[in-house]
Amino acid sequence: MLYNLQSMILNHCKNLEVLPEGMRTMRRLTHIYVIRFDRLKRMPPKLGLLHNLCTLTKFVVDIG
Predict the structure, then answer these.
(1) What confidence tier does 64 reach under pLDDT thresholds 50, 70, 90?
(2) Closest residue by Cα to residue 37 from 9, 63, 64
(3) CB-based contacts of 8: which residues, under 8 Å, 6+ apart?
(4) What Cα–Cα distance (Å) separates residue 29 from each residue in 8, 10, 12, 38, 56?
(5) Is the separation of the CB atoms in 24 and 47 below 8 Å?
(6) Tens-place pLDDT, residues 28-61
(7) What is d(CA 41, CA 1) in angstroms, rounded to the nearest whole number?
(8) Angle at 25 (CA atoms; ends 44, 62), nearest 5 degrees
(9) pTM listed for this prediction
(10) CA max distance for the chain
(11) Distance CA 4, CA 58 (A)
């Protein structure tokens, strides 16, 4: 895992539908930039455990 990763930039990831579930262990992650990410279906569970997260450019709610 990338425990010390601070910024994640996901630009033009056209075929990616979900972010990795293991992101909750990236405790130092402060920025997630999701730009032109059209197929994103849901956010990983327990994303709220990222207490240092300051920037999240897109949040998708899975309604079913």
Answers:
(1) low
(2) 9
(3) 26, 29, 31, 32, 33
(4) 8, 14, 20, 23, 11
(5) yes
(6) 999 999 888 778 888 888 888 999 999 999 888 8
(7) 23
(8) 5
(9) 0.81
(10) 33
(11) 22
How would DSSP label each residue in 5-59? --EEEEES-TT--B--GGGGG-TT--EEEEES-TT--BPPTTGGG-TT--EES--
Tokens 């990763």 found at: 5
The candidate with the shortest Cα–Cα distance to 14, out of 30, 41, 38, 46, is 38
Per-residue pLDDT at 1 exceeds 80:
no
Cβ contacts of residue 32 below 8 Å, gap of 6+? 7, 8, 10, 53, 55, 56, 57
Please give the structure tokens belonging to residue 45: 């569970």
Task: Please answer whether residues 32 and 56 qualify as being in contact, where contact means their C-beta atoms are separated by less than 8 angstroms.
Answer: yes
